[in-house]
Design a protein that fits this description.
209 residues; mainly alpha; Rna Polymerase Sigma Factor, Chain: A; 0% strand
Length: 209
């Protein structure tokens, strides 16, 4: 049923949605159908039910449509990339709620581990050290303490998204602003692993002679 939509270009979908009326509804459905295969992928990757995956996907599609209509989606990344990140965030939200409700720490830990596996090379040494010094649950705890925005940014960067794509998805003005915020978040994360000094503060290396 969906085969005719696979070759539909992003521009055609965007313009169809922006056209409004019955045309908008038609292309909203085409957008939904084109990337529906992500639902099955999410069931295996995040270990969530079909109903949860479909619910997250529907919410993500509505989010993309809203961003297209409002102009927040500027076409600097592919629709698939843009949708995938929003969809992933929705799945992670479901995992977090399920874990909280059932109080089972190990039930959905695979989501974070998968994200860490995709960290860029420049961060591999840092992450290896963190994992060597602390269990994954400890890292998850520190990520939660950083706040929702920092957590989402670090996970998005860990998935391999560029600062430009993160700026679009998280409503930053420019990629430079997103990069600065990301670096601050990573610094905060690293500080949580710094040994305390005798006076109770975090250890800081001397900067001068």
């Amino acid at each position: 049923m969906f085969s005719f939509n696979k070759n539909l270009k992003d521009d055609a979908i965007v313009q169809g949605i922006l056209a409004g009326g019955t045309q908008r509804r038609l292309f909203e459905n085409k957008l939904y159908e084109k990337f529906y295969y992500l639902v099955r992928d999410a069931q295996f990757k995040h270990k969530i039910s079909a109903d949860d995956a479909q619910s997250a996907y529907s919410d993500a599609i509505l989010g993309v449509i809203d961003h297209v209509v409002s102009g927040r989606f500027e076409g600097r990344s592919e629709l698939k990339t843009y949708l995938f990140q929003i969809f992933t965030n929705k799945c992670v939200d479901i995992i977090r709620k399920t874990t909280t409700n059932k109080a089972e720490v190990h039930q959905n830990s695979v989501g974070l581990e998968d994200a860490l596996a995709w960290l860029p090379d420049e961060a591999q040494s840092v992450v290896r050290k963190l994992i060597a010094e602390s269990e994954v649950e400890q890292l998850r705890k520190h990520l939660r303490q950083l706040g929702e925005k920092c957590r989402e940014m670090i996970l998005a960067w860990g998935e391999g998204y560029s600062d430009d794509e993160i700026a679009q998805m998280m409503a930053y003005n420019t990629a430079a602003v997103a990069k600065t915020s990301r670096q601050r978040c990573l610094e905060k994360l690293k500080e949580k692993y710094s040994p305390p000094t005798p006076d109770g503060g975090a250890f800081n290396s001397p900067t001068g002679g």
